[in-house]
Predict the 3D structure of the following.
Amino acid sequence: LVLIEGHTITCANSGSQLIVGTSNKTITSVTVMNNNNDVTNNYSITKENSTLKVTPKEIEVTTTPQEKVYDGTALIALNNCSAEGLLEGHSITCENTGSITEIGETNKVINKVNIYNELNEDVTSSYTVEKHNSKLTILPIPITVKATSQEKDYDGTPLVANSSCNITSGTLMQNDRLVCENTGSITNVGETTKKLNSVKIFN
């Protein structure tokens, strides 16, 4: 449609699209004006409708990292996560997998995401979800070990460091035992350092 110079056109359209998908945008009326005069009837108008399209909203979902100190039991992934870009009033649930028992780390993986609106209706399909996994981490048990002091009366023979030691902070797991290797020697009256060279823990 080419309008005569000075003429203007306005359209009234109808249609609505709330969820992800498409629907018709329909021209309900067309008006052509020449200043304040309606000159629509001077035109043969063909109406061509178009579409309304709602696309999924992009969000990022991340699992919540977990860690604990080693205790011999498995650290298992909880179903917790957070989302960036979620619409106000919407909530998210995640199903995560992952497990670790020994010291180290492994992936905490998002397997499934569900998103709900204020009416608790599932609106997951209204979002494009970018998933970010996090870590499950088991940390070593922190302990402090000190070589045990030794002393004796002077007898002309050296006082040689034995393997005695003790834990000054922290606790061993049940049935674990501590073995130390110490070095040091003194013969005359005085003192010297009893050096803790190595610590091993056995079960």
About this structure: The two ends are 89 Å apart (CA to CA). The longest strand covers residues 21-34. The CA atoms of residues 158 and 187 lie 4 Å apart. The chain has no helices and 19 strands.
